[in-house]
Predict the structure.
Amino acid sequence: MIIKIIEELLIAAAESAQKTGKLPRFTLPELAIEWPQNLEHGDYASSLPLKMARSAGLDPYQIAEILREEINTTEEIESVSVAPPGFLNFKMDSSWMRSQVQEILSKGEKFGNSDIGHGQSVQVEFVSVNPTGPIHVGHGRGAILGSTLANLLMATGHNVQREYYINDAGNQINNFARSLWVRYLQSLGLEGEMPEEGYLGQYMITLGEEIAIKYGKKFIEDEPANLEHIAQIGMEEMLGDIKNDLSDVNVQFDKWFSEKSLFEAKTYDEAIELLKKNGHTAEREEALWFTGSLLGDSRDSVLVRRTGAPTYFASDIAYHYDKFIKREFDRVINIWGADHQGHVPRMNAVMQALGVDENKLEFILVQLVTLKKGGSTLRVSKRTGDILTLSEVIEEVGADSCRYFFLSRSPDSQMDFDMDLAKKEAPENPVYYIQYAYARIASILRDVPANLSGPDQSGGKLLVEPEEENLIRQMVRFPEVIESSAKTLEPHHLTHYTLSLASDFHEFYTKHRVLGIEENLSLARIDLIKATQTVLRNALNLMGMTVPEKM
């Protein structure tokens, strides 16, 4: 990648300048290389001289001039220039850039991939909705973020496991069981008292009716065995619906991990004993506490209530004990809703208590999604008058639009999802615009006459128009986008990149013909659009979207 080449050139230049005394010796700051918006400033720019100014005691422009003199051009870099107040601008070699069309075609579906992960084992845990109801819109954003991030990490050489944590133990399951049992009774014309924190959604009424039809009066007695059986039936139904909804939006998991298994396998006992052994628990008020305040948390937290029942927090500890100590993941990325923000320092304290490097545990907190339609905000389901489910949104706008729009903003930003825009078959809809670029290329390639079957023999030398160079320049950046997005855990950059690439293609095709022109130039442009199609396909695959041959 060009960015790595520039980084190496900058480091070598700085070291050379320090060695010869042109610059004083000091530790170099972090390198910052970006794409200038104005191509007159080059293809890449670095603000390193500005960052070095204080340590060097020199004017940034002067530092930039010193570094420029020390930089040797390469096959990839044609020239380096200085711009006020102290930027270094790098211009790619045009011949090398054009040759990358064939490089893209030769790598095909592997273009953009790298091995920066070196096989590091990474678990990405996301969604993990309680199996007590349907998956709603807010969960959909985290689902799409998690699946795309997993794709990016795999593309950069990580060994990734996608995991869904099933909360199938604890008080919420007890409430679910009793709520469903009451709805079951009511469907039989009998009375039942809904628990104080019961589940009141329409889906519970429907599920109760289904159980009554299938089992009749089998469970009318309020017995633990009946409640357990009803809970199991209900959870299996809910989990099946969740799996189907996620599959409809192209979200898959490698492992569905049961909270209940933590207790069955004695993992919970092992984790609590380790905390006790390491001196991170205390008994107070007839309960067992985690002394997180001594490890950076704002307060201590109850692990085991005076009733002997474990808290959700205790289960979380056991779960992370399982992740790091039993399964030995190198990294774990938890994608949670923004309402879990207060839980982050608590889990960091837990990592210390377990003797695990807390830097191995990373968090992405996902903000809410607001759905807009007809200029109004949608708050409840039109179908049930209840929560807006993911399945309803998929049905309305399609899986591709769901994935693109949910992915289009940084997870820490709240987002408005315009459902009217998402359905439009027009250029202002980015999903349509991008997929139409792919389909248009496919259409052109279907019309290529038989006599134009060979590759471009010029090595891209005929691709000299500004729109052609812009298109190639954008494609060359694709591996950088993948690597940067994987490093920063920010998949939303893919949406912006893909839109820019589609825009560059449309601009090229509006101004230049591919077929019906001089043969050698036609061959060069055929390879150019084939390469564009390759990059578009690779990007859309990473985002979990379809690549339509026709539209």
